[in-house]
Amino acid sequence: MGQSAKEIAIEISIAPRTVERHIENLRLKLNARNRAHLITQAICLGILTIDGSVSANGMPLLI
Hints:
This protein is an all-alpha fold. The chain has helices at 5-12, 16-29, 35-44. The chain has a domain at 5-44. The protein is globular and about 30 Å long. It starts with a helix and ends in a 19-residue tail after the last helix. The model has no long low-confidence stretch (mean pLDDT 85).
């Protein structure tokens, strides 16, 4: 949804650095160059849908 790490952190009550670390881990696992590419990869792999819903285990993808 275009939120910053700080905005995500506030919303789910964790440290912004923790959000950044999760994003970086996802980026590395999906071989994405940056956050925008990460979203594209997640959509192509069916992890994330265009409307923002998630698949697989139902956990939200926080990007």
